[in-house]
Specification:
single chain; about 450 residues; alpha/beta; five-stranded mixed β-sheet; metal-binding
């Protein structure tokens, strides 16, 4: 009984378990089908969204292309209208101006001051005060430079007249005024004024220097020797030589070479300079110049670098004649300098006095040079490479003024102070030393010297 019941019970449990498994499988199949439906629905929804997005982008692109085409079309129309209006305005301006074109791109500046100075009735004294020379001398310079300085008018603008070009240069040299002030005074641009100064200075040096600053011919040398001998008693003197320094802004290259080593009671500041060596006749006219060597060089070194030294050494230019120099130069066969040792004799003192009279001629000439052209007294804005041209022009203009007897106002003339470094080897030849002793003896013997000591 018990055994049969157990068997029946197991059979019922087996059938029950089989039914449960079949039910579970059926549920899983149903779920799979549901999931597949959901995935298919999602795929369909994604495809629909992609199609919608693509359509929207195409529509946006089409709208943008239409807008761009519309803008291009409008721009073409506006550009055409603008060109037409501009051409119409040009035709109207040409018709109303009768062929004259307005200088619309040139800044309007006032040149009233120069217009006033250039009037024929402008006072001569005021003109000379402004330009350091009379109107006739100024016009002579303009006439000499006309062929080189003059420019032609263009379709864009009228050329600056020759007189105004020369006036800009001379005013700048005479006053040392900054370019921005020169620009306002003459109604020109700053860069234009700077260019004019360099162009006119170059023209003066190239055109006028061969005519107004040159070594004298034989007749000229005879006259110079006679004048110097009349005033000093020293024969065969053909020039008075001096070297001055022109202050500059410290250069960026080789700055030590331009350092002025001459620190004295009058010169205690650190300064940089270039040198100007000049030989002058009895009237203070330069007959030779050497410009541009660095300020650290001594007078002797500058002399040895000069063309005058090379001509005297190789060409015999100065055979049998003297150029008088100061204590900074050595005694040479053609350079006559004062006695430099202490405890001088009566004869040597007397000789030095007469040498000093000749040397003062060149000192005063340099004083007038710097007084006329005030740009030489201050550190200039001119570039170092352009300075020799500017300084050469100043020397030429000085000569023209001296030759034309253009006096200088006393308050403008200055006294130059260029302290001389005495060379270690002050005597270059025994023959020159003997010649100097002979000149000193003859001066005292013929009572040309020594009278101030009696």
């Amino acid at each position: 009984m018990n055994t049969g019941d157990n068997c029946n019970r197991r059979m019922e449990e087996g059938f029950s378990n089989q039914n449960d498994e079949e039910s579970c499988c059926s549920d899983r199949e149903t779920k799979k089908q549901d999931l597949n439906c959901i995935v298919e629905q999602n795929d369909e929804s994604h495809e629909e969204k992609s199609v919608t997005e693509s359509t929207r982008k195409k529509k946006t692109r089409t709208v943008l292309e239409l807008q761009s085409d519309s803008q291009d079309y409008c721009s073409e129309i506006e550009g055409t209208d603008r060109v037409k209006r501009r051409k119409s305005l040009v035709r109207e301006a040409a018709a109303s101006g009768q062929g004259q074109q307005r200088r619309l791109w040139v800044k309007d500046r006032s040149n009233a001051w120069w217009d006033e100075c250039s009037r024929p009735d402008y006072p001569e004294s005021e003109f000379k005060k402004a330009f350091r020379m009379s109107r006739s001398t100024f016009e002579l310079i303009c006439e000499e430079l006309n062929a080189v300085v003059a420019k032609e008018d263009t379709t864009l603008r009228n050329a600056i007249p020759v007189k105004q070009r020369v006036a800009v240069c001379i005013w700048r040299l005479a006053t040392g005024e900054p370019l921005r002030l020169v620009s306002k005074r003459f109604g020109l641009g700053i860069s234009t004024c700077h260019k004019l100064v360099l162009e006119v200075c170059a023209a003066i040096r190239n055109v006028l220097m061969p005519k107004y600053l040159q070594w004298p011919n034989d007749d000229g040398l005879r006259g110079i020797k006679q004048e110097y001998e009349t005033t000093s008693g020293i024969p065969n003197v053909v020039g008075s030589m001096y070297t001055t320094h022109i202050p500059i802004i410290a250069p960026k290259i080789s700055v030590a070479a331009y350092f002025n080593k001459r620190h004295t009671d009058r010169n205690q500041k650190t300064s940089y300079s270039i040198t100007v060596q000049g030989v002058v006749d009895p009237n203070g006219v330069f007959t030779d110049v050497c410009i541009g060597w660095p300020g650290s060089m001594t007078d002797e070194q500058v002399l040895e670098k000069s063309a005058l030294f090379q001509k005297a050494k190789n060409g015999g230019l100065l055979d049998g004649v003297w150029i008088v120099g100061g204590s900074g130069y050595p005694l040479m066969d053609w350079v006559l300098v004062p006695y430099k040792q202490q405890n001088l004799t009566w004869t040597q003192h007397a000789f030095n006095e007469k040498i000093g009279e000749i040397q003062r001629v060149s000192r005063k000439a340099f004083g007038r040079l710097k007084g006329r052209w005030r740009c030489l007294q201050k550190r200039t804005e001119v570039k170092l490479q352009d300075l020799p041209v500017v300084l050469g022009a100043c020397c030429v203009l000085h000569n023209i003024c001296e030759m034309k007897k253009e006096g200088i106002e006393p308050e403008l003339e200055i006294e130059v102070f260029d302290d001389e470094t005495v060379p270690e080897d002050g005597i270059k030849s025994v023959s020159s030393s003997n010649a100097r002793d002979s000149i000193a003896h003859n001066l005292l013997h013929h009572r040309f010297a020594g009278t101030s000591f009696l």
